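Batch manifest, entry 17 of 40.
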Amino acid sequence: MKRWLTIVTLMLVFGSTVCHAREIISVAAKGSYTTSTRFLYNIDRNDIFIDDKYFSYNFGFGLDVRMLAYSDDILIGVNIEKIKTLDQTTKLVYGNGIPVSEGFVVYPLELSGYFLIPFSSEDVRVYLGGGVGWYFGERIYSVASAQAATLNSPSGFGIHVLTGADVRITSKIAVRGELKFRDPQFDSVNRFEDSSTTYRGVTINLDPSSSKTRVNLNGITYGLGLVFLL
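Output type: structure tokens
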């Protein structure tokens, strides 16, 4: 993985002067929406049934760099994103509403290859692609003012397939729409450092034992971005 990222970086740095005239390097700023993320709780236990939870609003943003390689129909690229979701609810303790926040943050780093569909034109470029990715992040969990610490360095490996189109609006700017299928996951181990916390004069007991939660981005990702042709 590191070897491929090094190769792509060198190609982008040293190939820019050659590629500039042909406009075969693009840099895109984009936003994304993933339809579903699943939490699996206490996966280190031997229970047959494991509690789970789904998050439906997963928004992100990132950068995408691509360049032509090998032929005029094949591209390679690197994609970097940040996706964060936080669900805030209220838990009743002795008749008092205690704020509870739960979610995650994940940073995908993906290396992809793209193939331009033959019927594409200079103004509309339709492509198919796929590749590999490294995903690192953590679960976010807090009760009142107490936040559970992350005890490990969660990360996971995954593959993806995608399709999309670039529609040129000027000689140097295009709009990109993309549909991506991926299923990465990583395990986050969290624990409260204290056995209790206080909220508005009410003492709330916390479970000080560690728990392992699996974060699985199993939804479809829709992307929309602005592409700059260099």
